[in-house]
Amino acid sequence: MSALDRSYLILQKPVITEKTSGAMADRNAYTFRVPVDANKVEIRQAVQAIFAVNVVAVNTLRVRPRIKRRGYVAGATPAWKKAIVQLKEGQTIDVV
Hints:
This protein has three helices and six strands. The protein is an alpha+beta fold. It has one domain (3-87): Alpha-Beta Plaits. The strands form two sheets. Strands 1-2-6-3 form a four-stranded antiparallel β-sheet. A hairpin with a 2-residue loop joins strand 4 (67-70) and strand 5 (73-76). Helix 1 (3-10) crosses helix 3. The longest helix is centred in the middle third of the chain and has 12 residues, at 40-51. The protein is globular, with a radius of gyration of 15 Å. The chain starts with a helix and ends in a 9-residue tail after the last strand.
């Protein structure tokens, strides 16, 4: 598997919410859903390889599962990892 193929596996999909849209405009920061085992170095390299931009900072966080109920049955949403990538001033990514 080449490095570019691994990059597409690391960046699963963009997270677009009201809060992340504000971060895109204010701080030039983009949010992606990534695998739980991905680290900051891999995420930085993947964004730079796919979008040809310069990454200034990468912050990651684990989103914990939430308990959901449907009648008597209780379950949980899956845990996942979020990466917030800040780009160099003047650079953008078209994620929509």
